[in-house]
Amino acid sequence: MNIGLLLFIPHRHLENRVLDTISAAGFDVTIAQARLLQRIAANGSRLTELAEAAQVTKQTAGFLVDQLEKSGWVERVPDPTDGRARLVCLTDKAKAAAPIADGEVARVEAEWEKHVGKRRMAQLRETLEKLCEITDPYR
Q: Residue limits of the HTH marR-type domain (predicted)?
């Protein structure tokens, strides 16, 4: 099995666990919407930035943002640095779901640490953070 798949399978597991948990808490969001939500900066993001970060077309990002706005997850506000542009910002609903998602991430990481051991989990985190230095264009 190649390393990309070995990285993807645990990521998919984590993502599904988080979505199941926030869904059980009463927050309805699709995986595509959640992937876009994760990329919204604390002070808001422009649609073009979201599309690029999510590696989708601007039209797809716009469609997802429309859905998220109708569901109360985001709002569009004027960009204070450019009167012609708008920012996509998280709403209180999205901010309320974040600690639930973060809690599930912590539970999954604890399960993984229990399975592989504290030292290996620390090495895995350190290795992945090091790889991000050369693979993450949005660092």
A: 1-133
Provide the pLDDT for residue 117: 98
Nearest CA to 28 among 72, 76, 91? 72
Length of the chain as a residue count:
139
Q: From the centroid of its chain, how far is CA 34?
A: 6
Report the amino acid identity of residue 22: I
Q: Could you give all domains of the chain from N- to C-terminal order, each with its CATH number?
A: 3-135 (1.10.10.10)
Convert the pLDDT of each residue in 107-121 to its tens digit.
999 999 999 999 999
CA–CA separation, 131 and 128 (whole Å):
5
Q: Can you tell me the distance from the alpha carbon of 139 to that of 127, in angstroms, rounded to the nearest whole number?
A: 16
Report helix angle 47-54 to 58-70, nearest 10: 110
- Tell me the C-alpha distance between 67 and 96, whole Å: 18
pLDDT under 70 in the chain at which residues?
none
Cα torsion 123, 99, 97, 22: sign: positive
